[in-house]
Amino acid sequence: MVKAIQIGLGHWGFSWSKDVIPNVPSVEMVGYVDTSPEATARVQTELGVDPKLCFTSLEEAAKQTDASVAICTLRTEAHYPVVKRCLELGFNVIVEKPFTTTIAQGKELVEFAKAQGKVLMVSQNYRHQPAPIAAAKLVAEGKFGAMNMVSLDFRRHGPSQGYRYWDMPDPLLADMSIHHFDLMRFVLGDEPVRLSCRTWNPPGSPFHFHPSGVALIEFAKGTMISYRASWMNSGPVTPWAGEWVMDGAEGQILWSSRDHFRDKAGPDVLTLRALDHAPEAVALDPVQFPDRRGTLNAIAEVVETGVVPVGFSSGEDNLGSLALVQASIMSASRGGDWVEIKEVLG
User: Fold this and answer.
1) In CATH, what number is assigned to the domain containing residue 210?
2) Which ranges carry the Gfo/Idh/MocA-like oxidoreductase N-terminal domain (predicted)?
3) What DSSP string describes 133-188?
4) Residue 287 and residue 264: Cα distance in Å, rounded?
């Protein structure tokens, strides 16, 4: 068991405090940090957290506890300074995505974590679901041969589904698509080479910035991904991880994941469709610690054992997903021009 502190108890941070952390038995909480009296009062009154475990500064928490892991659940722009300070104070760190706002900041934190001998993990929670885990295994085993083309669709209608971050810059590419971009790399076991992206804001949209986009992404092994996503789509709602059609030389792998809508949760689904054969549903193995619980349990195991599992979303690995975000934003700003990933990664 590892001892941990949590930094950031706002709306999303409180969700971690309530729904995630108590369900990961390998983590013992020894501190909660937030400068807001209201936020700390809420974890005390609603979750029964001992006031002695609540601190207003990271330095105070580091001094008063023997935690080895810092759980950073703050707004994105606070990730870089807080994560850096956590590493300076000797913590291993798990941080919400996107873990920095720039590639340069991400590289700096990755190198600093290495120098400190600490684990830096990004909570790419969509990796910890049955369907993408199974899909990644099938691709790695060469099921249906090399992947030729992948189609990925994400459809949600923000105004009717409780979305509230109308003034967030790049609400699609930076906040939502990073999940899909990360899954592309995880499932294909490959890295992107270049992409072209266009985004727009539909008439009547309450978003201040573009909530809809399309992209064509080329991967190193030759797979082309056609990506269509929108927060302003009036069509059938997709699961959060989207609807995937992965086309190989000898058949297709079709799957969807995180089918949560209005407090109703459906199972992950994966279907195999061999060339000239009827579709075959695949029974998926359950995941003991799904979603965010999976990322938290993963860093606890790595800190305890020193063994890094396949698919672990370290800060270094996550630079590839962050690069897809930055490249797609750059391409969209250039009217859809092709952008080389190496231009972004440097």
Assistant:
1) 3.30.360.10
2) 7-123
3) HHHHHHHHTTTTSSEEEEEEEEE-BGGGTT---TT-SSTTTTTTHHHHHHHHHHHH
4) 19
pTM strictly above 0.90: yes
| Cα separation of the two ends of the chain | 39
Confirm whether 346 is domain-assigned: no
Per-residue pLDDT, 260: 67
Q: pLDDT (tens digit, 9 = 90+) per residue, 232-273?
A: 999 999 999 999 999 999 999 999 999 865 445 568 999 999
Residue 151's DSSP bridge partners are: 226, 245
Q: Which residues does the chain have with pLDDT short of 70?
A: 260-266
User: What is the rounded CA–CA span in Å between residue 303 and residue 39?
Assistant: 28
Tell me, yes or no, whether 92 and 210 share the same domain.
no
Total structural domains within the chain:
2
Which string of DSSP letters, residue by residue, matches 6-52?
A: EE--SHHHHHIIIIIGGG-TTEEEEEEE-S-HHHHHHHHHHH---GG
